[in-house]
Amino acid sequence: MRTDIFARLDREPEPPKIVAPRMSRHRAALFGGTLAFYLAIVFAVLVTSWLVVLDWKVMLFRPYQQWPELHAFLDYYVVLGQRGPTAVMVACWLGWRSWRQHTLRPLLVLGTSLLLLNVTVGAVKLGLGRLGPHYATQIGSAEMFAGGDIFPSGHTANAVVTWGILAYLATTPRARRYLSAVSATVSLGVGLTTVYIGTHWLSDVVLGWAAGLLILLALPWFEPLIARAESWIFDVREQWRARRRAVRQARVPQGVPQPVLLPQSIAAEGAALASGAGAPSAHLAAGARARAHHVPTVCPERPQSAPVGTRRPQPHPEHGSRGTASPAPAGPITGG
Q1: Could you please report the per-residue DSSP string of 289-306?
Q2: Distances in Å between the alpha carbon of 198 and those of 126, 185, 186, 194?
Q3: Nearest to 97 by CA among 3, 8, 5
Q4: Cβ within 8 Å of residue 156, ≥6 positions away
Q5: What is d(CA 90, CA 216) in angstroms, rounded to the nearest whole number?
Q6: Dihedral Cα 43, 46, 51, 57, nearest 10 deg
Q7: In angstroms, rounded to a whole number, what is the distance separating the alpha carbons of residues 17 and 176?
Q8: What is the CA radius of gyration of the chain?
């Protein structure tokens, strides 16, 4: 039995039995509570409540000026919330898992979550049109419906969804707890980093956390669709493989190779025919070989006819026909 760490890199012989999460009562209650919190944040910003006042106080505090030594590190740390780099990193990990477990579910879950993220968060961003702190026009204003696109925070919501997928797809409770803690820490740090840099209001970040959590909680509703999509993709793959096998089997040689008759064999067959031994069978065999190699044959039993216009040679008078007497000379016979 292999006990080294590289044993886990081997592909499993059979796909494991993976039980997809279902929408339990506990999860449904969390989804309802998060949705209520999401709507409350949106309402508080729309009516310019105390939350907007807190946004302005944090913005005027200018954290990037209070702790400038953190700026260089946080400029790189915030990349963990950008959609492109994080999607590529997580997709590579989930792609290896899909290959190892003979299933497309990890990649399909990631694609579904990112699609939901782009649709829901993007629609709210464009619909509310809030301006960021660097583009604010009036102190104390909510800066809503002004053509912006920063409410909710896309970096924060993307960090919650992308890293939270790892915890959602964990196969053991222990791994799920550890990955949940890691994803929560990363998403919390990314959100606060955007506030530190000054690209988002504090309420943007809070709404981004809620938006990402809603997507993770709603994923069990899409599990049947993901299972059907995986089955359809595997069916298409099997049809494509069967079509390729059929094409390969159809590529067979059309002609059968003919045997090669050497010149020595042709001379031997001709000698046998001339001697008259086994004339019928040898003649047929020689004719078949000659036809196969386009060599004209001459039948020994039937003489060739003379060409038209030529005179056939007459038999010598002294030699009669075979089996008949020679005719006497016509002139007188003189004694000698």
Answers
A1: HHHHTT-----TTSPPPP
A2: 20, 20, 18, 6
A3: 8
A4: 81, 187, 190, 191, 194, 200, 204, 205, 208, 209, 212
A5: 15
A6: 170
A7: 17
A8: 47
Question: Residue 9's pLDDT is what?
Answer: 59
* CA nearest to 127, candidates 95, 142, 102, 149: 149
- Are 154 and 83 in contact by the 8 Å Cβ rule? The answer is yes
202 in the Ramachandran plot: left (φ > 0), alpha (ψ -120 to 50) or beta?
Answer: alpha
Q: What is the pLDDT of residue 211?
A: 96
Which amino acid is located at 38 in the chain? Y
pLDDT of 153 over the 70 cut: yes
Running DSSP on this structure, what letter comes out for residue 16?
-
Q: Per-residue DSSP letters for 37-74?
A: HHHHHHHHHHTT-HHHHHHHHHHHH-HHHH-GGGHHHH
The amino acid that residue 77 corresponds to is Y
User: For residue 298, which amino acid is it?
Assistant: V
The answer to whether the CB of 237 falls within 8 A of the CB of 95 is: no
Which residues in 131-158 are b (16+ Cβ under 10 Å) and which e?
bbbeebeeeeebbbeeebbbbbbbbbbb
CA distance 222 to 258: 64
Q: How far does the chain reach from its first CA to its final CA, in angstroms?
A: 126
- Model confidence over 99-140: pLDDT tens digits? 988 889 999 999 999 999 999 999 999 999 999 998 988 989
Taking the C-alpha atoms of residue 248 and residue 236, their distance in angstroms, rounded to an integer, is 19
Alpha helices in the chain (DSSP H): 25-46, 50-61, 63-66, 71-77, 83-101, 105-128, 154-168, 173-197, 202-218, 223-250, 263-275, 279-292
**309 DSSP 8-state letter:** T
Whether 58 has a pLDDT exceeding 50, the answer reads yes
Q: Counting Cβ atoms within 10 Å, is residue 230 exposed (0-12), middle (13-18) or buried (19+)?
A: middle
Q: Report the pLDDT value the prediction gives residue 207, as an integer from 0 to 100.
A: 96
User: What span, in angstroms and rounded, lies between the C-alpha atoms of 80 and 160?
Assistant: 10
Length of the chain: 336
Q: Are 150 and 138 a contacting pair, CB within 8 Å? A: no
Token reading at 87: 């999607």
